[in-house]
Amino acid sequence: MKLSGAFYATLPALFTGVAGAGWEFVQNGTSGILALEAIIVSPTLAVFFDFAGTGDPLMINGHSAWGALWDLETNQVTALDVLSDTFCASGSLLSNGTMVSVGGNFLAGTSSASDGRMALRIFEPCPSANGAGCTLFDNPDLVHLTETRWYPSSLRIFDGSLMVVGGIHEATLFYNTDPVNSFEFFPSKDGAVPRPSAFLERSLPANLFPRVFALPDGKVFMVANNQSIIYDIEANTETILPDIPNGVRVTNPFDGTATLLPLSPPLYIPEVLVCGGTNSSDQIPSANLSSQDPASDQCSRIVLTPAGIEKGWEVERMLEGRMMPEMILLPNGEVLIINGGQTGYAAMSSVSDLVGNSNADHAVFTPSLYDPSAPLGHRISNEGLPTTDIARMYHSSVSLTPSGNILLAGSNPNPNVNMTVKFSTFGAHTTLCREYRVQYLNPPYMSLARPTLAGAPSKIAFSSKFTARVTIPASAGNSSVVKGALLTVALMDLGFSSHAFHSSSRLVWLEATLSRDRKSLEISSPPNNRVYPPGPGYLFLTIGDTTSAGVHVMVGSGAPPPVPDQGRRI
Ligand SMILES: *[C@@H]1O[C@H](CO)[C@@H](O)[C@H](O)[C@H]1NC(C)=O
Ligand SMILES: *[C@@H]1O[C@H](CO)[C@@H](O)[C@H](O)[C@H]1NC(C)=O
Ligand SMILES: *[C@@H]1O[C@H](CO)[C@@H](O)[C@H](O)[C@H]1NC(C)=O
Ligand SMILES: *[C@@H]1O[C@H](CO)[C@@H](O)[C@H](O)[C@H]1NC(C)=O
Ligand SMILES: *[C@@H]1O[C@H](CO)[C@@H](O)[C@H](O)[C@H]1NC(C)=O
Ligand SMILES: *[C@@H]1O[C@H](CO)[C@@H](O)[C@H](O)[C@H]1NC(C)=O
Ligand SMILES: *[C@@H]1O[C@H](CO)[C@@H](O)[C@H](O)[C@H]1NC(C)=O
């Protein structure tokens, strides 16, 4: 039978029925370094980055490490030898599966690290499940950016290369006072001459870590401060879109977050959701801001078609204000809103009434779910979601894992290990300075009988069909499958987490047909490399209330960027 059209619009009905443990937080292991950036690099490994010279307990070559491999199976950490300072960098995977960490910092004399501001650190796909022998190539003399960039964003685009957006040249405590208002690419385009951006100029001084998304036509949507544009990479033009309503600002140091909502065939109409941040003026000096200023509870959503842009942003409210939240796409098409504080700002040591060194306070301990298909006003709920006692404030990271649960690490609103201050290391729940405890948030399906997906080809061409074996637990029920509305296959990029933003994160629904014997699925790959920028991804099968573990695939040829257009136009 044909199960296409089984996309998120039908999903609310799923969350009734099968009993299990429900959502739960589980703490397991410690990160050894502060996990202020995180990216899943293989089915079993995540990479964490910290900043250099902090005295972290994890050692390498006789000094504290600032990069590490986290083993998702054993919950153990191994130091990575990083040469340059990864402080406040970003990154992504390329079309050949290689992870690139971009930009960073330089604090002369504080550590053995070299200047990371032009760094392009390369982590090749590594076959070792536990990370033994996996290395990071980090030599800024050989491979580097054109500009020095601290606080840049990175995005995998339609040709599988990386677009690097914005940043700051030099250390600054709060606003972007020494901006890099340009875009560049890796591998470089235009003879490595950066492209100036009027948008970045206009969105000063709160435009660090712009929230940027690859649209299904290859253009790039960007939000910085309270402004948004669509950037056409091929024509090098910026089209101004409406501002976020009500003066709400969402990029560092006013970190809200943003996500591209799941893309559905046949049209893959893009919609963006932006949540949290602040409506404080960006003209107020940081010394006149307070850690107790309420964060914004506003979510704003826009459909990126001419009609949607004409209509503008639709506003809805979270259950609480959030500074520095992060949004995680879940394999069933819902969005997890997690982390952050109810008051204050991002960054540290800049407002009038610091909490330790934190510019923010009142950590939010309970995540919410956002259901994109529910009617306005009924999309956000924390019913059934658990409460943690570990605050995740500035410099925390979060990612969906290939197993289908959510990895949480980091949090450090203080510059260094300090056991005495509020938000200190390892303390009771009101303390969150350098937080090394790693947690998982387990969705209910982690404790239920789960469907499985196996035997998909490891490499999937665009606009093609492939077959995978499935098993469907009896408890998933037959009626749900027979009705044809409750089976979905999600192709996901798990993204790179840094500073309350998950760059390159993506969910594309794939059409799928279940065989008569219910043992195999015929799945259609994305139509082309603009709908899903070529590179690695995970396939998740959701049936009823349960979701399979993710299956790692390479989408496209796996060739190094830039790769030519592939597949069919939509
Ligand atoms: C922590 O993870 C290890 C390795 O997966 C596992 O053996 C152990 O049972 C886990 N502990 C808890 C408390 O979940
Ligand atoms: C966005 O911010 C700018 C600069 O602070 C301001 O002039 C403009 O009115 C804001 N837009 C909205 C919709 O509030
Ligand atoms: C900032 O605070 C100082 C001291 O209270 C005050 O004199 C100044 O006017 C304030 N500036 C702004 C822009 O609010
Ligand atoms: C600014 O945000 C705060 C906190 O959400 C809210 O109470 C206030 O009404 C907002 N002000 C405006 C002008 O929207
Ligand atoms: C820890 O923080 C407290 C309060 O801000 C400060 O007095 C103390 O000097 C700090 N200790 C270290 C080792 O930085
Ligand atoms: C679903 O159908 C299979 C085969 O027809 C049967 O063995 C199984 O018990 C059914 N499961 C439920 C929950 O009805
Ligand atoms: C992937 O492509 C990048 C950029 O060209 C290159 O630096 C890297 O070595 C390539 N990795 C592999 C495994 O081909």
From TrEMBL:
It comes from the Eukaryota. Pfam families: Glyoxal_oxid_N, GO-like_E_set. Residues 450-555 form the Galactose oxidase-like Early set domain. This is Glyoxal oxidase. PANTHER family: GLYOXAL OXIDASE, SECRETED PROTEIN-RELATED. It comes from Mycena rosella (Pink bonnet). Residues 65-425 form the Glyoxal oxidase N-terminal domain. Keywords: Signal.
